[in-house]
Write a structure and sequence with these properties.
By secondary structure, this protein is of the alpha+beta class. The chain has eight helices and seven strands. The strands form two sheets. Strands 6-5-4-7 form a four-stranded mixed sheet, with helices on one face. Helix 5 packs antiparallel against helix 6. The longest helix has 45 residues. Keywords: Membrane, Transmembrane, Transmembrane helix.
């Protein structure tokens, strides 16, 4: 994991920890006390200093690709983790956690995975140079030489089938919001860079459409083969004019 990836992960881990602590404090201390921690989690997430992006880098839309999935995972993941603790007093024992934890905690992890999506998209940076396309994924850094790209083809991916199948279970348990989030989740689409002697590199275009057109303009300028099904990402005249010397 790169230093930028570690730092952005730490921000999310700290935000989740504070938010979960706030939810766990509600039964004992009430909403007013817990609200201070909730505000604290928001402050940490939005106002914690972040590593500067490289000058001229291309990045994903902050709201749709980063903030929305982040808070979908943070809110529903923390609620699912807190539910067994909230329900523990109903058993009339000294146990701190209700047995439902065996069921809802794995579901909470599934919901928290949306935050990983937000983390990944905030980490991703694309820097165009004359010789290569430099990419920072948060896990590793890649320099893809333009001449090594054989072509570009469409790419699509949906939620795993097992996650889709959780929908009726969530509805039967009364978790309509979580079920709705899965139902409304869209499939991901993007482009796949076919490379010489290496695995294709996939770039999601969700929240990255305009910047994808910029990348496509650079690849067209270098006579890289563009596959069928990508006409909606065809660069405009403005993109051709702004690719400069890169």
């Amino acid at each position: 994991m790169t230093s930028r990836g570690k730092y952005l992960f730490l921000i999310r881990a700290l935000t989740f920890a504070i938010l979960l602590l706030a939810l766990l404090a509600i039964p004992r201390f009430g909403w007013w006390s817990a609200s201070a921690l909730i505000v604290g989690s928001v402050v940490v997430y939005f106002w914690a200093p972040r590593p500067a992006r490289p000058a001229g880098s291309l990045s994903y839309d902050r709201v749709s690709a980063v903030v929305l999935p982040d808070w979908l995972g943070l809110i529903f993941g923390s609620i699912m983790c807190a539910l067994p603790v909230w329900a523990a007093p109903s058993m009339g024992t000294s146990d701190w956690v209700h047995p439902m934890a065996w069921l809802v905690w794995p579901m909470g992890l599934c919901m928290a995975s949306f935050t990983v999506i937000g983390w990944r998209y905030e980490c991703l940076n694309f820097v165009v140079t004359p010789a290569h396309l430099s990419i920072d994924t948060g896990v590793a850094k890649y320099d893809i030489i333009w001449d090594d790209i054989l072509g570009v083809s469409p790419w699509k991916r949906d939620l795993p089938r097992w996650m889709r199948r959780l929908t009726p279970i969530l509805i039967s348990m009364g978790h309509y919001t979580q079920a709705g989030a899965i139902v409304l989740a869209r499939e991901s689409s993007g482009i796949s860079l076919e490379r010489k002697g290496q695995k294709p590199f996939v770039i999601s275009t969700d929240g990255f459409e305009t910047n994808t057109q910029t990348l496509m303009a650079h690849m067209i300028a270098r006579d890289i083969k563009i596959g069928r099904g990508l006409s909606h990402l065809a660069p405009s005249k403005r993109h051709h004019k702004t690719i400069g010397e890169a």
